[in-house]
Amino acid sequence: MTERSTLERKRLSDLHQIASQLGIKQYRKYRKPELAEMIYKVATEQAASQQNDSTTNGDATTTATQEVPVTTEEPNGATETPVAAPVDGFGEADSNLATTEQVEHQRQDRSRTDRKNGRQNRRQEQRGDRDGKGGEENVQSGILDVLPDGFGFLRTGGYSQSKGDVYVSTSQIKRFSLRRGDQIVGQIRPAREGEKYPAMVRIETVNGQEPQKGRWRPNFDDLTPLYPMERLRLEWKPNDIAPRVIDLVAPIGKGQRGMVVSPPKAGKTTILKQIAQSIAANYPETKLFVVLADERPEEVTDWQRSVEEAEVVASTFDQPADNHIAVAELVLERVKRLVEEGEDVVVLLDGITRLSRAYNLAAPASGRILSGGVDSAALYPPKKFFGAARNIENGGSLTILATALVETGSRMDEVIFEEFKGTGNMELRLDRKLANRRIYPAINIEDSSTRKEELLMEPAEAQRVWQVRSILNALDSAQKIELLIQKLKETRTNPEFLRELQRVRG
């Protein structure tokens, strides 16, 4: 029988092997002390069961020669074959010499085996000391961040650097064709003397699948982008007017690249939260990310509590610009990996203006300065982020809705907005005059629209929406939104509103 103290001295990998041989299910989820205790109990029960079977099947009467099994324990946890020793004096005079020689040979064999196993165990212990102070291995998960030097770190505390990050070697990254943004689960060892981070020992899963499967996945940049064809309906509560207005004037589809253009204090963050809540309620299978760059700390807390279904990734304004950039880029790589797996992903970025400012501060000067002090090279990375939104042919989509600031009094903000103005295929405009009059949502209906919106609507619905626009065009901005809000409050759904409009005009 395996002694409990011997099991506790073994490494976790050896215990996993023993547990597998004993048939213990889901043994990887147990810690080392718990697994050792379970192995001891199972081994004890199996030994008792075998002893009962042998007692039941054996002959109870005294035979000519009775043998008692003598069990010796090996250092690796296995047991030697029982050695038969005569306990009855019958026949002892005839076989005394043979028995003595057999016992001597067996003792010499055991001595050689013990010395061999002892050398192997010492080598294993020395190897374990080199790998991780001889400590037990733990299972850790996180997002892989690959550095330009080829090695990477597993970000375990979100998408920012932390003390709990795990080092991933270059050989492991090349062996499994790992990419930045992969979600990895694997066994790690503690940091040895002179090291700052623990290291990855064995990779168990990559994005929830076996590591070998990642070699044949497609590359995001090689996928074919299309116009959004499938609609994301935001309407889900009759009293939530903002999502219903957006569905009418600027519909959103899977793969949309939309921009919420707003002056300060016009309600852009509130509208973005309502969009997030609508998507989380209507499309729970969609992966929802909220990226807050250079944001206020209390705003981050409000986001986390308002939209619990979303993964909120934030870098507050008290952190350096390099941290804003690192977080945003790692989130972008993460959502690309999800799209490669065929997932539908929605990213809400608040906001593209502050992220561009961070790149302008952190990027090395190129010598080409635009009006407002914007470096021309600093606008390429945020354009790359925003341009990643697309509807993928044959499955998968990445939808990005980003906020852009205007009318801030800063020439830099105006230049940034002008650079992004033609890159999106959906634009939602907010009006400061409406916000000053406390008209919410302060949406400028005339300037808000979606490219190729007919691909997202049925022909009859598109005709009715265009009729609504033609009716509202005769009014000014405030009267348009006030009339639309009033009529929407009188109906419970947008289809009901359009049918009522058709009945009145008919």
UniProtKB/TrEMBL annotation:
InterPro entries: AAA+_ATPase, ATPase_F1/V1/A1_a/bsu_nucl-bd, CSD, NA-bd_OB-fold, P-loop_NTPase, Rho-like_N, Rho_factor_ATP-bd, Rho_N_sf. Residues 137-210 form the Rho RNA-BD domain. Transmembrane segments: none annotated. GO terms for biological process: DNA-templated transcription termination. GO terms for molecular function: ATP binding; ATP-dependent activity, acting on RNA; helicase activity; hydrolase activity; RNA binding. Homohexamer. The homohexamer assembles into an open ring structure. This is Transcription termination factor Rho.
